[in-house]
Sequence to fold (222 residues):
Amino acid sequence: MGIFSRTRDIIAANVTDLLDKAEDPAKMIRMIILEMEETLVEVRASAARTIADQKEMRRHIAKLEKLQESWTEKAELALSKDREDLAKAALVERQKAADMCDQLQAEITVLDDALRASEEDIAKLQNKLREARNRQNTIMTRLESATNRARMREVYAGPKTQEAFSRFDVLERRVDMAEGHADALSLGAPQKTLEEEIAELKTSDKVEADLAALKAKMNKEG
Fold:
């Protein structure tokens, strides 16, 4: 069952109200647009048939006008031959053709009014369709934005993220243990004695003296 029952329902419809009441606005707007497009096709097809009918009527009127001319000529011929009875009969036939012309012209006028109404309806339908498509774009943009926000929240606050950070905590704990183990290996290592430290100082002084002597020698030779 369609959302709208006729063209006037679409023209009078408030798209915003329909979407506000819908459980699934995205689905509703697709249905609205589809029905509007189908109705627009139907109205245009009806207008095309009206235009075709008018053209056919105008061709018929042109033939009837020629027929009237023919009966006029025949009436004149009959009068020229003193056949008034035939002239009257010819004029009767001419009047029948004229009446048919008038009738067809009246029908064309009615169809003109219908065509103008169809043209107005088409314009209004197109406006409603543009409105619906704009709403569809807005809805899809909002839906995409909401989906992206939900994904972002899932990334930084979701259970998978929490699980990942929990694993980081476990890894950091393992690193702490490894570092603690390395530090523990240096605990209790033998310390240098006072004599060893003094001996290192003497060795350092001797190296410095040797270095100075070597520099002096090189300066003399230079």
